[in-house]
Design brief:
Blueprint: E1 16-19, H1 21-28, H2 33-36, H3 39-43, E2 49-53, H4 54-61, H5 67-77, E3 81-83, H6 87-103, H7 114-125, E4 132-134, E5 145-155, E6 158-167, H8 169-190
Helix pairs in contact: 1-4, 6-7
Length: 191
């Protein structure tokens, strides 16, 4: 993959934009694609390459119960840039999950999936150079990320909120520091 360049003033002045499974699923659906094609309007006239993680690809095609559908979806998603997950991505995703729980005790593993944490890890890894488009904006907590743009899509009478999630360095560094200090406080309390 090419180096991802930054431009904090416009989250879409990037060459790449990461897509969550829920958006891919809607775009791949013959019944929903036309309604969700407005997502491209979020990008304006920017030429961004749609990017997905291999874990997102798994979520999209991994549970197909029909070989023809599996082959069709597999070929469709392979048109995009597919990023491989590295060990450090998994470690950062696990760290993020712990930070989420530290910051908001009511968050459960069922609420924010491993794949969502891997997507969030990419936002941090690329530090503002790789925005994420998702319809599950609650999976990317505002205490850590920002929503750069939103769009409401009429999905056959149901309002679907789509957001562009971006990295916020101040939120990340502050929460990371507090979380790391929490280990020292717990150790002191045990003595």
């Amino acid at each position: 993959m090419e180096t991802i360049s930054a431009n904090a003033a416009d989250p879409f002045k990037h060459r790449f934009i990461l897509f969550d499974t829920n958006i891919l699923s809607a775009l791949a659906s013959s019944k929903r694609a036309a309604r969700f094609s407005n997502i491209y309007d979020l990008l304006g006239d920017k030429q961004c390459e749609m990017t997905v993680l291999n874990s997102t690809k798994f979520e999209l095609i991994g549970y197909c119960n029909d070989k023809a559908i599996y082959d069709k979806l597999n070929a469709w998603v392979d048109r995009f840039v597919v990023l491989d997950i590295k060990n450090e991505d998994v470690e950062l995703a696990a760290f993020l999950s712990a930070i989420y729980k530290y910051r908001s005790h009511e968050i459960s593993p069922k609420q924010i999936s491993f794949c969502d944490c891997l997507n969030a890890a990419q936002l941090i890894k690329y530090q503002g150079r790789l925005p994420l488009v998702t319809a599950d904006i609650h999976d990317y907590p505002l205490f850590l990320f920002d929503i750069a743009k939103t769009m409401v899509i009429d999905d056959n009478g149901k309002a679907v909120f789509v957001g562009v999630i971006v990295y916020n360095e101040n939120k990340w560094l502050s929460l990371k520091e507090k979380f790391e200090k929490s280990g020292n406080q717990n150790s002191a309390n045990e003595n």
